[in-house]
Fold these 2 entries.
Entry 1:
Amino acid sequence: VIVAGIEAGADAVMMAHVVYPQVAPEPAGYSQRWIEQILRGQMGFRGVVFSDDIGMAASFSAGGVAGRVHAHLDAGCDVVLVCHPELVAESLQAVQGRNLNTAALIGLIGRGALGWDGLLAGTDASFTTPPSAHFGTTA
């Protein structure tokens, strides 16, 4: 199913908190092997990689909120899903000072992903802070 989706031009993939022990010892969303080697390398996926929700019990193997956020980003996820409002502040604090990979973002925009203005179009007016304000310096 994933290969067919990639071949059809899928713009995004969401990783699951599922362990496939013959491939990697950690959940797929925390695994560089799954994200960088298999999904991006072998399968040639060039879109956005989302984590699964860090509030799910299955995500707890990476530790606290900050540990989960960093584990997903370090594995290669582009976006970490924080679907529980009570985890948002701690998640944002976890990425303070972390460099934003602007080269990757530019690559996504070049493949047809929305720019920041496009993401803001039609959204809640309170969501107006550019991503660099949340992630510190750009790289």
Entry 2:
Amino acid sequence: HLGHEKTLARILTWFFWPSVSGSDDDGTVVLTTSGPIRGKRLQAGSSTVTAFLGIPYAEPPVGTLRFQKPLPHQPWSQILETTSFGNVCPQPSLPTYPEAKLLTPTMPQSEDCLFLNVWVPHPRPPAPAPILIWIHGGGFFTGAASLEIYDGRFLAATGKIIVASMNYRLGALGFLSLPPAAPGNAGLWDQRLALRWLRDNAAAFGGDPAHVMLSGHGSGAASVGFHLLSPGSRPLFTRAVLQSGSPTAPSGSSSLEEAKERGQRLGQLLGCTDSDDTALVGCLQGKEAGEFPKHEFSVLRHRELLGMPFVPTTDGDFLPDSPSRLLQAKQSQPIPIAAGFTANEGSYLLLFAAPTLQLQNASNVGMEELLQVLKLMVPGAPEEAVQAVARWYSQEGEKQGEAQYRWAMEQIVGDYIVVCPVAEVARRETEAGANSTHTEAEEVLSRTMMQWTAEFARTMRAAVTLWPGEHNIQEEPTGKTSVVFPVLPPPDTHTNCSVPHSAPSNVSEHKGSPYSLREVLLQG
């Protein structure tokens, strides 16, 4: 009977609450399915938004709830102040380089970290507004929705849309898989619970649950891809944007067998030596949360460039099959999707993964360093394949002069990790259907991107007409779109997702069919 009493109390609270809130309600108080919350007004340039920060959407995943699917947060009856970001999920420190400051959370770390944020234009749009839900990146082991670079107020104000974001469990706490005791993919289940909460409460914020766009960058974009491929997530959004990330990216997901091996190795590192997985999980549930990030990367069998130890797993539940097979079988949601990448993906990735290479000095990078990075990126790749790819890219980079090998290194890493996997998603879907100051051009680009994002949340066609390129979507029978931004000089595009399988000293002599970059490196 306790459950019935809680339900009755909740109904009575909702029934009487509006009459007692009275003068307290200036538009910053919203009644959600979890209970009443109070946000705060924030300036966004010359506009104003109402921000609801640190809304708890799940019970703290502590104790026996660690490694488990999240439980919806228990409802509350009093107004909950949601005016500051919640804790960030436990994660390791990033390497010390200047740009890392942008990606380093400032909020305290705690296992009690499952919070979401909502920014609403003020005054509210007269009609229900589209909703953009942002999933942060960070390789599934770092990041937070509270990072300053993810501040949703400006997009909400510029686009007159509702913007939301969420924290989700990271690293081993989010992706350890030792079923059935630890089913795996807890971080993805967190995201899904947040998506469901936002759908159920869209109207309370003035949003339209029929116009929900899911967007993310890096591993956040990969997460968007996993939701596209997961039957249980598909009803929760109507559009998707994948920015510099893909569910098929190398090291972005693992088999159940590999995940289990990593979980067992982590247990050994933390002093949990039980051979029985259930006992092992019980032991790990008793460890301090802060101990996990210290040991996670030690579970990798090889030293890998950009290797991620705990990632989404083909569990047969959230992901019925591997992402590649699901994509090939056209098992994704048939909705409007935009996928893209930037011109120099590899430069950012190398800044994080190989700070000791001192890439800012092009003369420090030669063929030896290029081969070193290739071998770290794909441990076990055949020597002939590594040499072939290095020659192919370095000859392509000859026009870069002194920066030839640095350019080749950046392009290889960017193509292999980001560009080619994103291109694969785009192809499969069409078959189915850092400056310290900003230049004027960069500010124009930022405003244009915010306008594009808001328009795509409403209608795909508006997004295309806003950024006219050499090709219009109506001209492409497959639905492919080439978009050129008029506000910045076009970069030299270089997408070598296909290279010769076996390259002689002069790769231009190759006459055979090209092979995928991944095929060359993995199969030789």
